[in-house]
């Protein structure tokens, strides 16, 4: 469907596909599943973040009432938050593109 899409569109589509493959029939994930998904599929972005207060706040919020469910929008906000604070983001910024 995104054959002619931009790289950014493809990246977001991939995140949506990953989410949907783990989501229940109501398109939701429990907080525990969300934490597991973030740690397994997006670990490059969260690696080394364990000591940062904001990371600890996000992860501890997923540990509270871990059976509660979140929707795709909330998942993407969590993913974006973790990406923005990631050390990997700085490494990505330092790469020069040749396009």
Automatic annotation (TrEMBL):
<dbReference type="InterPro" id="IPR034325">
    <property type="entry name" value="S-100_dom"/>
</dbReference>
<dbReference type="InterPro" id="IPR002048">
    <property type="entry name" value="EF_hand_dom"/>
</dbReference>
<protein>
    <submittedName>
        <fullName>SNTAN protein</fullName>
    </submittedName>
</protein>
<dbReference type="InterPro" id="IPR013787">
    <property type="entry name" value="S100_Ca-bd_sub"/>
</dbReference>
<dbReference type="GO" id="GO:0046914">
    <property type="term" value="F:transition metal ion binding"/>
</dbReference>
<dbReference type="InterPro" id="IPR011992">
    <property type="entry name" value="EF-hand-dom_pair"/>
</dbReference>
<dbReference type="GO" id="GO:0048306">
    <property type="term" value="F:calcium-dependent protein binding"/>
</dbReference>
<dbReference type="GO" id="GO:0005509">
    <property type="term" value="F:calcium ion binding"/>
</dbReference>
<dbReference type="Pfam" id="PF01023">
    <property type="entry name" value="S_100"/>
</dbReference>
<feature type="domain" description="EF-hand">
    <location>
        <begin position="50"/>
        <end position="85"/>
    </location>
</feature>
């Amino acid at each position: 469907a995104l054959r002619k899409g931009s790289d950014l569109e493809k990246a977001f589509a991939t995140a949506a596909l990953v989410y949907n493959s783990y989501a229940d029939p109501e398109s939701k994930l429990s907080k525990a599943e969300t934490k597991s998904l973030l740690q397994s599929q997006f670990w490059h972005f969260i690696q080394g973040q364990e000591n940062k207060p904001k990371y600890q706040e996000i992860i501890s919020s997923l540990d509270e009432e871990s059976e509660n469910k979140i929707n795709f929008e909330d998942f993407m906000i969590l993913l974006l938050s973790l990406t923005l604070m990631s050390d990997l983001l700085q490494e990505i910024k330092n790469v020069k593109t040749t396009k």
